[in-house]
Design goal:
The chain is α/β, with parallel strands linked by helices and 445 residues long. It contains ten helices and 20 strands. Helices cover 22% and strands 37% of the residues. Helix 2 packs antiparallel against helix 7, helix 5 packs across helix 6 and helix 9 packs antiparallel against helix 10.
């Protein structure tokens, strides 16, 4: 399969500049060089024919654009007051803040490492916790066949690092904040997250990508999450980018025996958004629950490619994604559950439901099951449609007018996903962000 190379040599030039300005361990420099070489071979996945993963998403606007890169950008005037109105916020949360890809130490608040939790920038961790970083960084988000992951890895010099040591429970959520300020010229950032939850540990992590301006930019984000035996991670991801933004997120999760990974992802904004999440249930008794809500309008495009691999017996997965589409927007959902031959007693269920409010909106949903074991309980389903006529009639018979009935039904559809959020401060923020901005839709008889 032929992939299109980048339009110009700006990425190679930026890479050389960044390498000269960065002092990193030799092993990381080797990883970056390998990743850059691989990106130059792969380019961006603009080929549509024979490229099933990108069949319904055209990344040509990214490939043909030039994005400026400066690893030493300033904070562009950002302070805590302007940040609190742009992202979910609570003073008690631990947080790491990155502005246009640069770690903002003064805006961050971290727990003491003596408490069994290390929350730091990746650059700091390369000095103080180099062994643990080397063990996991770029070991799960592989880049051999992924141009976006290769490009991010080529530029990995900093990012968010979280390590929860064995049997430690962190009661306070950790908030990873990636802010794009929308500069005058198109820019690119490479957010990176490495989260390691050792055996028996527990933590809640919030990962936010937000914009403060309307400028064009490209976020090429990669995260790696590793759960040890019996570990529990409650993960929330918010993608609320600017209307001119391009966001491609790659996330890889690996789970050991008896671990529990719960994820709720929310998508609103960006011209083109892509979330590629893969979860490997690599230990007996491991469980994952993945929830998602995406809302698109205008000409926005949101692609969610969610994959779960059951590699060991007695594993359980639940995948529930919902979308609300308006205007001429488009959404793509690709959900794959793979059950290996060894994964007997697997219990897996996936569902994608879409509320399409405009005749010009379109959703492509492709749930799939690949089962190689013979003692499993698996199911999948996908729906797409407008508001049901009988349901509207029922609500009107209870005294509601058409406008109120339509809005209440859309509200209920979205609220089900938001109710999966257990962190109350985050839940309140999402209610305001999503529920108060629902499309003004009137069902027509």
């Amino acid at each position: 399969m032929t992939q299109a190379p980048a339009k110009n040599q700006s990425y190679r030039s930026d890479f050389r500049t960044a390498e000269q300005a960065t002092d990193s361990p030799a092993w990381l420099r080797d990883v970056r060089a390998e990743a850059m070489a691989r990106f130059e071979e792969l380019g961006f996945p603009t080929a549509r024919k024979g490229n099933e993963k990108w069949k319904y998403t055209n990344v040509a606007p990214i490939a043909r654009s030039e994005f400026g890169f400066d690893p030493k950008r300033d904070l562009n005037g950002l302070n805590a007051d302007s940040l609190t109105v742009a992202v979910p916020w609570h003073e008690t949360w631990h947080r790491l803040v990155f502005v246009d890809g640069v770690f903002a130490k003064d805006l961050s608040s971290r727990p003491e490492a003596a408490n069994g939790v290390r929350v730091s920038s990746l650059a700091e961790a390369l000095v103080s916790d180099n062994g643990a970083v080397q063990e996991h960084l770029a070991k799960h988000a592989l880049f051999e066949d992924d141009g976006f992951a290769a490009l991010n890895t080529a530029f990995v010099r900093d990012g968010a690092y979280v390590r929860v040591t064995s049997n430690v429970t962190l009661e306070t959520p950790i908030h990873l904040v990636f802010v794009s300020t929308g500069r005058a010229e198109p820019t690119v950032s490479y957010p990176r997250v490495l989260l390691v939850a050792e055996a028996g540990s527990r933590a809640t992590v919030i990962e936010s990508y937000v914009a403060l301006g309307d400028g064009e930019y490209f976020n090429d984000a990669v995260s790696e999450t590793v759960l040890g035996e019996g570990a529990e991670i409650e993960h929330y991801r918010l993608q609320a980018e600017g209307e001119s933004a391009f966001h491609v997120g790659t996330a890889r999760v690996v789970q050991a025996e008896g671990s529990n990974y719960s994820s709720s992802a929310f998508f609103k904004g960006s011209s083109l958004g892509r979330y590629d999440l893969s979860v490997l249930l690599d230990g007996p008794g491991s469980t994952c629950r993945l929830n998602g809500l995406y809302m698109t309008s205008g000409s926005q495009h949101q692609d969610n490619n969610i994959n779960i691999e059951h590699a060991k017996p007695h594993t359980t997965s639940r995948l529930y994604y919902k979308g609300i589409l308006d205007g001429k927007s488009r959404a793509v959902f690709g959900g794959t559950v793979l059950v290996r031959k060894e994964a007997q007693k697997t219990d897996a269920l996936q569902s994608d439901k879409n509320l399409v409010l405009s005749p010009d909106a379109e959703v492509d949903s492709k749930p799939a099951l690949f089962i190689y074991a013979d003692d499993v309980k698996c199911g999948h389903g996908a729906t797409a449609g407008n508001i049901d006529l009988d349901t509207v009639f029922y609500m009107r018979s209870r005294g509601l007018d058409v406008d109120a009935a339509s809005r209440l039904l859309i509200y209920g559809f979205a609220r089900e996903s938001i109710d999966t959020v257990r962190e109350q401060h985050l839940k309140s923020y999402l209610e305001s962000l999503f529920l108060e901005s629902l499309p003004k839709y009137r069902f027509e008889f």
